[in-house]
Prior knowledge:
mainly alpha; 61% helix
Amino acid sequence: MATLKEFEEALREHGMNMALALLERLRERDRATRTVKPARRLTGQKMTPELARSILELHASTGMTQQEIAFKVGVNQGRVNEVIKRGKWLTDDPHAPEAVARDRAVARLRGDPKPRKAASSKAPAKAKDKAAPQARRSQGQLAFGDL
Length: 147
């Protein structure tokens, strides 16, 4: 199957200027009627239960696609999909996985230090366990220069 670009090149090779002009008019009509512009990036709006409910309302009451809903409310299409398909963001639970992930991302953007885990007494044993597999690995591994 030929791509549209290959088809256009074949038309050029055969000097079919009328067909090329028709193809260009169809492209212009497509661009004019397109409701969602391709490759447009959004800064994103914070997902809230109210916003999730408005996404569900738009999805139920209109024939809009997920992409069109995303542009209308100011989020990306993946978030719209999560709300519609999995019911995410419909509660204010701060311990919900999506809320925890959002808070971690916000902390990373702020440059907050990572919370450190408490040091345990098993730290020296872990170091010993890590060293042992390395010694075992070196006995049976081949390097490129060995062959």
